[in-house]
Amino acid sequence: xxxxxxxxxxxxxxxxxxxxxxxxxxxxxxxxxxxxxxxxxxxxxxxxxxxxxxxxxxxxxxxxxxxxxxxxxxxxxxxxxxxxxxxxxxxxxxxxxxxxxxxxxxxxxxxxxxxxxxxxxxxxxxxxxxxxxxxxxxxxxxxxxxxxxxxxxxxxxxxxxxxxxxxxxxxxxxxxxxxxxxxxxxxxxxx
Length: 191
What we know:
Layout: H1 2-38, H2 44-51, H3 55-58, H4 62-85, H5 95-123, H6 130-157, H7 162-187
Helix pairs in contact: 2-7, 4-5, 4-7, 5-6, 6-7
């Protein structure tokens, strides 16, 4: 009676090891795919750091990779919007700083809206008018980059404290780099 139990346990152990090895191997293959795709972007390290955790969902599908790149960018833009929206509540902002912050909030909200449109369009990318939809997506992501850049233009025209400038720059820089990477990945899509 002891032998069948031992053989059953041994067989189960071998199956589990093989399954784990196969899963681990596939996971590494998918991470390699993400790393290779990210190497074509402007900020490859940021790209890989942002997207490697989605590798097993992406597999080797460039459209899924673009979906995740846009979603990660949208999430960062929402976080930037939240961060910058808290600035007017801080005491001690000058009238000029308050104006710059309000303009920036508006620009970031526009960026969030454009990224939402891009995410929705990418998720619904089908077989009909694919190039037209890709062009729309590229336009929305490019517009979001312009909005982020416009946000910081107010620094040149108004005297803004280093603390306010740094808070906004840090938030905007993160979104801009992610958006730039997403745009690079989208530009590499071919249909």
